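Hey, can you fold this one?
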Amino acid sequence: MVVPFPRPVFPAPRRVRAAIHYLRRRRMVAAGLLAAAVPGAARGQAPWPTRPLRAVVPFPPGGGTLDALARALAPALGEALGQPMVVENRAGAGGNIAAEAVARAEPDGLTLILVSTGLAAFSPNLYPRLAWKPEDFASVGLIGRAPLGLFVRADGPADFAALAAAARARPGVMTYGSAGNGLPSHVGMELLRRQAGLDITHVPYRGTPPVVTDLLAGRVDMALDSPPAWLGQVRDGRVRMLLVTSAARWSGAPGVPSAAEAGVPDFVVENWQGLQVPARTPPERVARLSEALRGVLAEPETQAVLARLGIDVWTSTPAEMDAVVVAERARWGAVIRAAGIRVD
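Sure. Predicted structure:
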């Protein structure tokens, strides 16, 4: 049975900006109140920031979730901080070009980078020679998280148990497509393959669209990927979503079982997003940025924007985000080493 889905969650950039437009008028007052709450301001220091800020996105414009997040949050964060925040796209090398640029930026709190599971947790384990290291960054706070979904054609296995049985009956024959080597759609599937005892073959692509095309054409058997890119095909009855990789059922697809319900306990893969700044940024500035971020994410209108992007809001302090990054880097490092995944 095909699970009904709502219309696609990704809005056009114009709609994203419109959803938070009215917040700008309210945040001039909020920015003044926030500045007054900062310990430095209470000691009579000059207010900060006094110049525009940069939010660096490690992918091209329109290049997925991080770019959409940046363009949704930057105007609201700028209002909260009392200075404009400009989105700067620096694509290439799986996000490492942007990471290197921010790692070398002045640690004044004015340059931030949007990171995700892939850049913060995968890259240090995937690339043998990086021009940056995790210690080059200080965390500001988490933004949100979203699960992946396991997809097959609508005429394929009806549930994960049937898919696993088919794979075990033909070891090494069934294939899965991913958006590229070392991405969550690849590393996450390697974890599933080991936890479920599946002998299946990886077929890497350049991005998700060709994976969708080849799955529909029968050239690959399954894919683990971000749900928004597949919702249209699911809604049209051409693709079935067998499970989601969150610990519980996902609000974006409440009719789809979690991995634990589908028979794969402890299989949790969440693509989370957050903000970081260069290391040695003054702690009071990190605290100011973190408080502004949490304030923006607490707004119902901001939460609605993220929901349309398929993201559940997940806030944190800088220390809490640091703990998540360290734990995730260790967890995924073990998976990457066991699977022998390398990206040169």
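The chain has a mean pLDDT of 87. Let me know if you want another pass with a different chain boundary.
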